[in-house]
Amino acid sequence: MTSRRLPAYSGATVPDSNRLPVHASTVPKLRNAGLATCPAYRLRVPLARAVALVALLAVSACAAAAPARVDAPRRIVSLIPSLTEDLFAIGAGSMVVGVSQFTDFPKAATALPVVASYASADAERIVELHPDVVVGISAQVTSAADVRKAGIRTILLNDDGFDDIFRDIEALGIMTGRTADARALNDRLRARTTALMRTVRKRARPLRVFVVLGVGPIFTVGDTSYIAKLIALAGGTNAAHLPGAYGPYSAETLVAVQPDVLVADPTVQLQSVLDRPPWNALRAVREHRVAYLPDPAILERPGPRYNDGLAWLIGILNTSHV
């Protein structure tokens, strides 16, 4: 089964058969591609510069680090909305010249040319933008291939785990010569997370939360995903124990687990199947403990707005009567 990222929000890997419906937007004709190198990228540089880059690789285990400040790019194309948000948040938004489908924040980014989706990138249009570097996530190995073949430096970053949020921000800060801004942003994000955690309601046992990312088949988050970490920070525990960050989940297991709370992306249309098995066999459904994300991006997009998702989760769990 080929995996894909939730196209709207860059927050979870889902199978091709279970991709979210495309929202109304203009998307260029994109070409499929395949990249043979990940988790990093192969940078065509002299040996001396390659050696100099080794120290920067520690910033992200799956990222090719950027050259020194003197080589900082002036023009960047972002293949995923979360990294676009990161770039703007560290003050490098003026460098971004192209973005991906579903880029909707910040407002300035919505005016930029759309040259990619999660699954494909229009290499010809990207070349026309004359970027110094293209950034994406490690799961976009295939879609970044034509870009790399065109001779454009390509950096792919991990984004499944909670710590990857901060590593990616720092890596982009190094790449753009905005290391101090990136570190300051990470400090602010961590400080707000700490403050939010102080508002978590104490319970005898944490509520078991099942995140619904798909209903046909059922798709959810595993314990290694950053979403599971946010659930834990909000005082809950992930009800689905999967070997990976995201994956399919059986109806039989869901009924056996009987999660306390369901958290759903409204675009997957959970409400339309709640009267059918296995959903109608869940106490959480019968007792109306189903919460729909007001903006899926705040939870499903691993970027600088993750605290908004955490705050929402805390509100839901604090007020749930179980």
Verbal overview:
The protein is an alpha/beta fold and 322 residues long. It contains eleven helices and 14 strands. It has helices spanning 47-53, 81-89, 123-128, 145-149, 162-176, 179-197, 226-233, 251-257, 283-286, 297-300, 306-318; strands at residues 3-5, 13-15, 76-78, 96-100, 114-116, 133-137, 154-157, 207-212, 214-215, 218-221, 236-238, 246-248, 261-264, 290-292. A five-stranded parallel sheet has the order 5-4-3-6-7. The chain has a four-stranded parallel sheet with strand order 11-8-13-14, covered by helices on one side. A three-stranded antiparallel sheet has the order 9-10-12, with no helix packed on it. Helix 9 (283-286) links the parallel strand 13 (261-264) and strand 14. Mean pLDDT is 83; it is low at 1-5 and 7-70.
Sequence stretches where pLDDT stays below 50 over 5 or more residues: 1-5, 7-70
Quaternary state reads: single chain
Provide mean pLDDT, rounded: 83
How many DSSP E strands? 14
Quickly give the structural class: alpha/beta
Arrangement of strands in the largest sheet: 5-4-3-6-7
Distance between the termini: 37 Å
Report the sheet with the most strands, covering strand number, pairing sense and barrel closure.
Answer: 5 strands, parallel
Helix run count: 11
Binned, the helix content reads 25-40%
Strand content: 15-25%
Rg calculated over all Cα atoms: 20 Å
Per the principal axes of the C-alpha atoms, what is the gross shape? Answer: globular
Report the order of strands and helices.
EEHEHEEHEHEHHEEEHEEHEHEHH
Key features of this structure:
16% strand; single chain; 322 residues; 4-stranded parallel β-sheet; alpha/beta; disordered N terminus
